[in-house]
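To whoever is covering the structure queue this week,

Two jobs came back overnight. Logging them here so there's a record in the thread.

Job A:
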Amino acid sequence: FLIVEILRYRISNMTSKISAVLVGLCAATVVVHPFQFTTSPSKRRCTNLRDGSSGGGEQDVVISSQAADTGSWVEQDITEQLATTSTTFLEGANPVRGPSKVLIYDTTLRDGTQMESISVSCDDKLKIAKRLSSFDVDFIEAGWPGSNPKDEEFFRRARTELDETTKSKLVAFGSTRRKNMEASEDEQIQTLVESGAPTVCIVAKAHLWQVTDIIRADPEENLDMICDSVSYLVSQGIQVMVDLEHFFDGYKFDSEYTLKCCQAAVEGGADVLVMCDTNGGTMPWQIEQMTKETIEKFSKTTFGIHCHNDCGLAVANTLMSVQGGVGLIQGTINGIGERTGNADLTSIVPSLALHVGSDMKCKERVNDITSLSRFLDETLNRQPDRSAPYVGASAFAHKGGLHVAALERSPDSYQHVDPAKVGNELRVLISELSGRQNILGKIKKLDLDVGEDVVRERALVILERVKKLESLGYTFEGADASVELMILHSTTTYCPPFRVMDYTAQVYDTNVDSASRVMSKMEQERYHGGVPAGLARATVKVQLHEDPDHQEEGFLNRLEVAEGDGPVDALANALKQALIPSHPELENLKLIDYKVRILDAELATRAATRVMIEFENTITGQKYTTVSVDRNIISASLNAMVDGFEYALKELAASCMIDDYDHMFE
């Protein structure tokens, strides 16, 4: 009863040592659980910031020069308790400080999903949460349970569908209580408590102008909103972080008030204060300076960073803040997020692990970060960014002949890290800018049973052919499969598994009125007078080995007819029907992307067309791309398609020839 009465008492003069001792005694009544702690039910001191007891300057912050400062004493007492009895991330009385140690806080499932064109189901959110947990991030911000039914469903299902380790990392996001009401009466605060998440992160205004002009609150009421909300959540046994929205802009506008917001959060019992570059307009040197100044005033508090990429500086700003002492990083996988995105963890984590040497729980998982990046893109149905640092397909791709020659002597000559350390791979691109070394690298990778002299001779011939074809509109940089086939065809020991003898493609359409045709194709039944509208039919004749294992001589011809939604679809179906009886493994081959580019538009309908087709083996997950150029779009499509099917069967090639391909290189 005495403890409750003391905590309800509104302390007006904190210079009283007796009051300080009593409050400290109450705060020491701690019940500790893994990943969280609780204090005895209380309402922390939130009014001393505006009652005139603090004269400003360093006394306004928790770490003051006076030993009787209760806020400082309370914080120290709690962390000392945790040091001996808890496995919480604070790991003792000392706060987490970068760059030596860093905690990773992923907000892909909350802030990341605010990016334009991104939508994720609850099932996918659960799947992503499991994947993030296996990567060993420290915290997973899963959503705002008070804002939408999907996030409420996530936290409800998480209780039974996620393992204990993943659940221990979940963070529920919310905001401070509303103006002029108790935190315990705020419905949004209650949804955070009911979410079951062991950690809650609440957003609070830390910019005086935002407080007075945007949310139109009294500045001192805003301080109480911060302190009351944190204090109430802590009393419910929840670990609390505070996102200080517009922190850096607010610091530039009125640093004294921004620091008072920090103090209010610490007074309430917050475990981490997160400094937010909400508008993404702060420069890296400003980030470092303001970070250092703030941490100096709150030397016993762990600080975090949350950067947006509006100036393209989110990663740089995050790293500068870590240099300044920040110990917790908020970011998203692949940098997704509202407007231009958030700080990209796929760049930050490997940079800290491989270049800075920071101690992170996920440090041992860095070799899985490329896989994690592509998993997220696949789940969100996004096209991966080929040029993304560390994880992009082009991150370790080399085109210039001089670069490739140097890499042959030492991989460090043009690489800042070994791509294998981040789960990526070195790629040698073939183009008109390539040198012979690029081709030699490709040939060596294929491990062909030919002499060194033949390899060098063929490399020059192939390089000249590449340059000639690129002058006609081909591009081989993203079509490694076509390059490998070109190399294989240049050897007399390679036997193509099949050859297309001839083909035809026809389109039948009884409705040529554009407006009505669009409507008719949207309908389930698309027939007019018994004839399908827009039907395409194709025939393909192929020559194959009579014995698929090539144990006996002899060939067979097979003619197949198929229909499709268009001529290319019909040709793909006919070609597959012709090949599968001899090569049933092609059942697992899927065409997943089809791109067409007009190369010389000024020629109108006579323009050359470049077609690139991406294939995937649904069993192994292997993906590859082929390319072809022709003034006939149907021919270009079929040639790229034939390369794709042949590449899937290249391991079955035998030492024989269906046709003589040597003339291609004369």
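Job B:
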Amino acid sequence: KWQPGEVSSSSGGGGDAGMEGMEGDMQESVAGAKITAATCTSGKLLVSLSQGQLVYIELQTSKLVVKSRATMPAEVSCLDMGPRMHSSAGTGAEGEEEEPKFACLGSWDMNITICSLPGLQTICSIPLGVDVIPRSSLICRLEGVLYCMVALGDGYLFTFVVDEANNYQLTDRKKVSLGTQPMTLKLFTTNGSNHVFAASDRPTVIYSSNKKLLYSNVNLREVSHMCSFNSEAFPDCLAFIQDETMVIGTIDQIQKLHIRTIPLGEQPRRICHQKQSRTFAVCTISSDFEDTSRDDNEINYVRLIDDQTFETLARFQLDVYEHSCSIVSCAFDKDEKHCYYLVGTAYAPPDEVEPTRGRILVFLVVNQNGNTTLDLISSKEVKGAVYNLNAFNGKLLAGINSKVQIYRWQQREEGSWELANECSHPNHILALYVESRGDFIVVGDLMKSISLLVYKPEEGTIELLASDFNTNWMTAVHILDDDTYLGAENSCNLFTVRRNSDCATEEYRQKLEVVGQFHVGEFVNRFRKGSLVMQLPESGSASIETLIFGTINGVIGVVASLPPEKYQMLHKLEQCLNQVIKGVGGLSHQKWRSFCSERKEEEASGFIDGDLIESYLDLKKERMDEVARLMSMDAEELSKQVEELARLH
């Protein structure tokens, strides 16, 4: 049974190591040395002293007894003993505490060393290959897998799998960035499972799912320390230290995607984030059908919201019948020190079928005397609805009714700024969706599918390069690379087109060739580059770029650009799964995913159905083995590749 005790770096009097409860040989062992790190389990204590000394101590009849000593090649910066828990047979659940068998040491020479216990013999030493000192180490068992984790002073985390059958050798090394400041690792238990809390400037919970480590951000600001806190008033809680504040709370169900609802009291239409001012600008509509004094019962606003507290800082009311259509944050040439919000609007009075006028509003976020305001800097009248706005090489790119327009930001004689026309490209039905990459401009038209334009700054003109001659009613577009473009249309299909830039004839160079088509079954209305999860640098999926898409039904999906060899493997897996898995009610998967619109129906091509691929992980073992046999692959290796794909979302 432990007696109350304390470990401190020095003993106050002569600068020697201090440890309450020391007697005799214990005092001699640490005399004149300074304690640099310590860890303990029930009845066991491992202490590192200055000059690389390591001491393993046991509590015997209320007395601390030194069992072994060793001298390491460098000063020890962090340490831990393990394993601390038995793994329940067959379940991977954590059980009662067991005797520690080895220790993990981080040292000032940027190495990780594994030592046996109680003898302190070195089992292995692994150089990290970095210039930052390890600050925290942890040995833990998650879902039956024994891990060794080492956190560095720059926010990076190294994880290793401990091979218990091979004398605790470290395998499966991985490295991930969880923050930018020194990190402390602490083990805690919630809902009967072990998890790891990484306390730093970006607090993170590390957990295991299907025996894979995953990372979930915590909605707290910088946390310096954390420990479990369980009392009658606060059962199964955690205590966090933030600057000069202590917070007691619980961890919700661990999940990859955190959803937080912010009540606005109004209907949001468009949203944009500005990193420089740490704000969101949200275009909203407030409806008041009880007010009979107005012809227009809808009032449109531009709200400025703090990106941390989600408090409304300011708001701007639009004119009667004026609706917000687009919003973007950008900086301009010759005025780089300011970052502006630009809102595109349209006037929609009841007697007009299509908008004939609109405005481009230029706002600046101003912080003065602790107050944040949204100041209107400039207003540009245009002839039509401003359906789209994009930052474009220090200028502004806009889709206004049937034209694509470029504006420059210029200063008047009296010193104020305004938007001035640079050039335009007409002949579209409605330029609803506009994206840019370098000097290239991709337009998603109401009816005329996708067009590729190029801006020539020397001539000050926009020219048409190529078009898709199919009739598609576009709902979203995105540029995948210089020659490949992704589109969504109103029959719930996705398709990709490619520019034939290497063709010898002008006729083929002016045509965008359809290279992929797929029925997604959802009305997609927005693509955005990004990911819903943290991508690990050393994982197999780290090099795969992803897009997020949103639909009118509230669905969030992911589109990933696959390398050719990965596509071929997954396409074969898709075919094998269709042989093994039969659709509900005999429905054909191939027919469901075929491109289908009012004008044509063609088989899907150039796309892989990720939902079908990941269903492999839910199959019974016999079915998994059957699919693996058709693939001429090992079932375990196939599962690993599908799991890597699943980590994209």
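Note for Job B: The chain has seven helices and 48 strands.

Please reply-all if you pick these up so we don't duplicate work.
Q.
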